[in-house]
C-alpha cells in the first residue's frame, strides 16, 4: 500500500490481492477527538458525545496472510465487485 491507505467508501471495500481476504484486516489508525465527558458526583466519567476532528489510517494489513503491500480497494458486490469472502471465512 502507499503511505496513506485509500479508505473504502459506501461503494467499495478492501481486498487482499495476495490471498483474496475481504473481511479481516488489522488497521492502525490515529485520531484526534473532542468528547463531552459527564462526571458523576464520585468523579466517574461517562462520555456523552464524541466528535472526530481528524482521523488518519496509517496501515492496513491482511489478518489472514499478513500482507500489507497487497491491499486494494474493490467495488462492493452490489456495484459489481467480488462477492466471495475467500478461504477460511465461511465463504462459498
C-alpha end-to-end distance: 27 Å
Uncertain residue segments: 88-92
Largest sheet strand order: 1-4
Rounded Rg: 18 Å
Number of strands: 4
DSSP summary: helix tally: 0
Describe the overall structure.
With 92 residues, the protein is mainly β. It has a domain at 12-75. It is built from no helices and 4 strands. It has strands spanning 12-16, 25-39, 45-62, 71-75. It has a two-stranded antiparallel ribbon with strand order 1-4. The protein is elongated and about 55 Å long. The model is unreliable at 88-92 (pLDDT under 50).
Could you give a short description of this structure?
The protein has about 90 residues and is an all-beta fold.
Features of the shown structure:
mainly beta
List the helices and strands and how they pair.
Layout: E1 12-16, E2 25-39, E3 45-62, E4 71-75
Antiparallel strand pairs: 1-4, 2-3
Amino acid at each position: 500500500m502507499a503511505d496513506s491507505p485509500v479508505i473504502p467508501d459506501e461503494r467499495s471495500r478492501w481486498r487482499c490481492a495476495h490471498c483474496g481476504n475481504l473481511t479481516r484486516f488489522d488497521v492502525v489508525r490515529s485520531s484526534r477527538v473532542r468528547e463531552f465527558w459527564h462526571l458523576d458526583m464520585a468523579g466517574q466519567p461517562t462520555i456523552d458525545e464524541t466528535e472526530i476532528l481528524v482521523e488518519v489510517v496509517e496501515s492496513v494489513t491482511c489478518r489472514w496472510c499478513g500482507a500489507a503491500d497487497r491491499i486494494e480497494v474493490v467495488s462492493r458486490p452490489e456495484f459489481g465487485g467480488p462477492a466471495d469472502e475467500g478461504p477460511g471465512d465461511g465463504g462459498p
